[in-house]
Structure formats: structure tokens, C-alpha cells
Amino acid sequence: MSGVRVLVGTRKGAFILTSDGKRQRWDVSGPHFGGWEIYHLKGSPVDSNRLYASQSSSWFGQQIQRSDDGGKTWHPVCNKFVYDGVAGTHQWYDGTPHPWEFKRVWHLEPSLTDPDTVYAGIEDAALFRSSDGGQSWQELSGLRGHGTGPRWQPGAGGMCLHTILLDAREPGRIFIAISAAGAFRTDDAGKNWRPINNGLKSDFLPNPTAEVGHCVHRIAMHPSRPGVLFMQKHWDVMRSNDAGDSWQEISGNLPTDFGFVVDVHAHEPETIYVVPIKSDSEHYPPEGKLRVYRSRTGGNEWEPLTSGLPQQDCYVNVLRDAMAVDSLDSCGIYFGTTGGQVYASADAGNNWSPIVRDLPAVVSVEVQTLS
Amino acid sequence: MIRVILPSHLCALAAASREVQLDIAGPVTQRSILDALEARYPMLRGTLRDHVTQKRRSMVRFFACEEDISHDSPDTPLAAAVASGVEPFFIVGAIAGGWSDWN
Description:
The complex is a heterodimer. By secondary structure, chain A is mainly β. Chain A has one helix and 30 strands. Chain A is 1% helix and 43% strand. Helix content of chain B is 21%, strand content 19%. Chain B has helices at residues 8-14, 30-40, 80-83; strands spanning 2-5, 19-22, 60-64, 67-68, 89-93. Chains A and B meet through strand 6 of A and helix 1 of B.
């Protein structure tokens, strides 16, 4: 029987929410790693029992946890992330050089083909890979070393590599995004990288169309069409039809084009979702109404989805890794809020209900579709 | 026999009791205690001091005999009361800090 497992990372632990394919009744497990910040946890697409979790603490640093039984038990694996060679400097907030320093793992992306291979996006921004199930980590240092690294700068949340997209059709192709440096692509499995920010415009930069320095919040793709990318930037929702070589704005009739999340329907590659947030200084929904916006035309034309979501006095945020979709029919959409709610829609966004209401602030949401 | 008191987060991580007892051959120092602790509980590597520089993490503190010894050299011999197990070596998370600005 089909089902779903929703993996929720929060400021004070991880939670695992499971349901059958109807997605009406839920079992809640957790907190796992209570008291620790769980920036992200994600399952292998080729072994649903293999999960990886990023567990961190300002006091005691980084841990990587691994489960081989779908989250019932966990064990710590290697937490040693050492930059390759001389780390060098990037820009600090005021533009002065600042040494690269490891702070935490923001995102873990398991390989599409091998459960023992997993990528880690870290702060200060770099990409690491493990090919032994997390027992050791090596930097793919061509990213930091390709030449623009000294011009990268941190966003408000730190200089984080938060998005890792693997291309199922071209195994050597990986897209990543960094706040605030922009989007980058490799076509040779991480040896060589180049910025893919042509068409982005950021008014906080001295040159708003600079090659790097853009505060990309999130990128999403449909696995069947990896050349088409959707981006929620600091401001602006963007689209690329050529694997990031160029971008066009698709904000259209959104009430605000600031936000963090963007995702794609599992079966309709032109159906996309965002959650508009009022502004970069007011991280909550406009008018106190929590609305997911859906476009069925790949952007520009957006409709608000409100059924079951609070439409007054709601001032939560939805962080960049906190939306996911399942691949059941019909497609389920999930997102978590800084107010501790995880909302689910089993009908592609038409109707929503909370799975849980009172978790710690939700940082990340991932979904596994179980057969 | 050295007595080490762990903060609760690290007890959970290491699946250890709050007080851990270690046998140390040679001088009893912060470094030798941490070396022995990490040898028994490898998952604690990187939680108290940096993997590479071996410097104490900034929000970790070490107390013994009612003194803050966080800023002492890691190779300074500890008090005889610690070396004999009469007094424990406390590993403490600083009372402040911990908030991250997420986005």
C-alpha cells in the first residue's frame, strides 16, 4: 500500500510524519535529536530506508546522522568538513575580505542512484560529497575555486549553499545555489563550475546585473525536464528554459515577489508553487493571510490557494527548504512554517489542513513517497 | 580515574551517562582528558574543539574545583583533586548564545 513519510527539520529537533496514501490520518514521531537544530533531513530516492540528517548546535557544532531503517534508529557518522587547500576569503557584509569558516550543513542531497553517495551544502558556502554513506566528506573545491568566490557575500542567514539539484538525465550536471552569490552549474560532476545568473537583477548590488552576488533563495526543477528551472530570488520569481544560461522574470500578478520557497507539481511540470512574503524586512505573509500561490502556466499567471489556511492575523514565515511534494496521484503539497505548523494538501493545493500545529519553528520539509 | 561531567546534549549524542569515568596514563590536562573522552566516544570529536586546530569551541567552557579553566593552556596540569577523581572536570555549554538568523 502506498504512503508518505514527511521529514521535518525544526529549530529543536526532527519529526517524522507518516500516513497512508489518503493522507488524512497521520502518525507523528519525534522529537529526534531533541534540542538540536535540524536544518535538513532527506531520504535516498533509491532506498527509502536510508535517511540523512543535519544536526547542529551553536554550542557543539555539526553532526551528521544516518538512519538505515526509515528513521526508527539513527547513528552519527562523520562530522568533519575541512575545506580543500587554503580556504581563502570571501566578502563580509561590509565588503571586506573575511576568511572562509565552516559553520553548519544546510542541505543534504542523496544521490539519485547510490544510497551511499550524498552531497552536503554548507555554510560558509561550499559543496561536499560523501561516497561512503557519510563516513567521510570531500569538498568539490572546483566550485569555490573557479574564480568568483572572493566576491561572494553572506545573506542575512549566513553564506549558505542551500540548494543542490541533481540532473537525472545528465549525471554530471549539478545545479547549486548560494545566498548571496547566486546559482552555479557543473557539467562534469563537480570539477568545473560556472555562474548561471544571466538575467538576474538585484538592486542591492552596485552593478545590479553582476555575474555573482545575487541572493538566490531557492531553485526547483521537475525531474522529467531538468533544463527548466524555477527560482525564488530575494525579490523576483524567475524561470530558465536553458539550464540556467538565462533567466526571465515570471512574478506576474503575485502580491509580492519576495519569498523563500518554490516547488514544482510532481506530474505537471508547468505547475509551480510559491509562498509570497511581504518583504525582506517583514518576513511574514502580506495582509496577515497565509496564501500559497500556484501557477499552472509555468509562471506569470498565479492563483491564491487559501482553503484551510489562516486568512487573518497570520505572521509566520516559510523558509527556503520548507516545501516539498509527493508523487502520489493526486500530487500532495507540504510546507512548514516558523510558527510550527506543517500544512498538507492531498489535492495539489486546492485544500489544506495542518498535520501538526505546534512544533518548534520549521526549517525544512521533505517528503518520501512510499510504495 | 578521572570524572568528567557532560552537558545533557552530549550525553544524548554519545548515549553516555552524565558522569563519565576515564583512566588516563600520564599528565592529567584538558588535552589528555579530551583525547581520552573522544577515543571512547568518537561522535564527540568536533563538538568540544575544532577538528583541525584543536581550539576549544567558543561556547564550550571547562570548570574544575569551582574555577573557570577554559582559558588555561590545554597542556596545563589540572589540580590534584581532579587527577585523583575527588573533583570532577565539568564540560559546560555557555549560558548565552545559540540563536541563528535563518534567512
